[in-house]
């Protein structure tokens, strides 16, 4: 299995480029790059397709979970069902799928109960502080205005990343950053600011050559020589 840190979380969002067979290919590419370079990569495929990514040698996180117990919750996503589908973790409160603070807290608690890794997204340092009280495994700071922009948060707004890292005093909680990350340089800058990795999507999913983009992404942090 991959090295412990840092982590690259690749969110497939709902792009057509990450759907169906293309989505499966993307997961295989991520798996190959991870094996070859030793950098931990986590894939977040589209939820209805999670089963197609099960039992591969790569961690799979969901893009969302709901704060519910088994029962009558039509259309919702049950933490237990994510586990059945092969997920070992989930994003919570992504910028494109926000939830109120009490629901975030409940999701984190349910993740803990069911052994799922929780990655809570936050749009500001204030939100980082608020969700840190819920003790998720990861907090990803993502300024919404930079999401999908190709302008990396680690270079465009290093202060929000640095301040988020400093705001989390609990050593058990790891801080990631996301928005506009697409190159090895962007990842290196994110780590230099004290993060444990990045959360990204379009820089890889929408790249002409996603495998090349993945190799570039890990090129400056890989413990093994990158040949791709
Ligand atoms: O989940 C990923 C983030 O929203 C960042 O998206 P992006 O890499 O396309 O900017």
At a glance:
It is built from nine helices and eight strands. The chain has one domain: TIM Barrel.
Secondary structure elements and their pairing?
Layout: E1 7-11, H1 20-37, E2 40-44, E3 59-62, H2 79-84, E4 89-92, H3 101-114, E5 117-122, H4 125-132, E6 138-141, H5 153-156, H6 158-167, E7 174-178, H7 184-192, E8 197-200, H8 202-205, H9 210-218
Helix pairs in contact: 1-9, 7-9
The structure holds glyceraldehyde-3-phosphate (G3H).
Binding site for substrate: 11-13, 147, 180, 201-202
Enzyme class: isomerase
GO molecular function: triose-phosphate isomerase activity
Quickly list its features:
36% helix; TIM Barrel; 228 residues; globular; binds glyceraldehyde-3-phosphate; eight-stranded parallel barrel
> Which molecules are bound besides the chains?
glyceraldehyde-3-phosphate
Query: What CATH architecture do you see?
Result: Alpha-Beta Barrel
Whole-number tally of structural domains: 1
Could you give the distance between the termini? 20 Å
CATH class: Alpha Beta
Shape: globular
Average pLDDT taken over every residue: 95
**Low-confidence parts lasting 5 or more residues at pLDDT below 50?**
none
Beta-strand content estimate: 15-25%
User: What assembly state would you assign to the polypeptide chains in this entry?
Assistant: single chain
User: How many beta-strand elements?
Assistant: 8
CATH homologous superfamily assignment: Aldolase class I
Q: Helices and strands: which structural class?
A: alpha/beta
| Helical stretch tally | 9
Biggest sheet strand line-up: 1-2-3-4-5-6-7-8
* H-E order: EHEEHEHEHEHHEHEHH
Give the radius of gyration. 16 Å
The helicity comes to 25-40%
Main sheet? 8 strands, parallel, barrel
CATH topology: TIM Barrel
């Amino acid at each position: 299995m991959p090295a412990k840190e840092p982590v690259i979380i690749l969110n497939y969002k709902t792009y057509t480029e990450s759907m169906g067979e293309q989505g499966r290919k993307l997961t295989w590419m991520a798996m190959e790059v991870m094996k070859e370079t030793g950098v931990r990569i986590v894939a977040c495929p589209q939820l209805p397709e999670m089963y197609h990514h099960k039992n591969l040698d790569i961690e799979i996180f969901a893009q969302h979970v709901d704060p519910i117990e088994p029962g009558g919750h039509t259309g919702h996503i049950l933490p237990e069902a994510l586990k059945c589908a092969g997920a070992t973790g989930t994003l919570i409160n992504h910028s494109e799928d926000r939830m109120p603070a009490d629901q975030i807290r409940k999701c984190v608690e349910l993740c803990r109960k069911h052994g799922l890794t929780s990655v809570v997204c936050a749009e500001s340092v204030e939100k980082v502080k608020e969700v840190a009280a819920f003790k998720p495994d990861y907090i990803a700071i993502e300024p919404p205005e930079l999401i999908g922009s190709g302008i990396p948060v680690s270079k465009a707004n290093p202060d929000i990343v640095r301040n988020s890292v400093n705001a989390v005093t609990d050593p058990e909680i790891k801080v990631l950053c996301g928005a506009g990350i697409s190159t090895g340089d962007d990842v290196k800058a994110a780590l230099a600011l004290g993060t444990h990795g990045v959360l990204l999507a379009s820089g890889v999913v929408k790249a002409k050559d996603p495998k090349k983009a993945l190799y570039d992404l890990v090129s400056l942090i890989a413990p093994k020589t990158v040949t791709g």
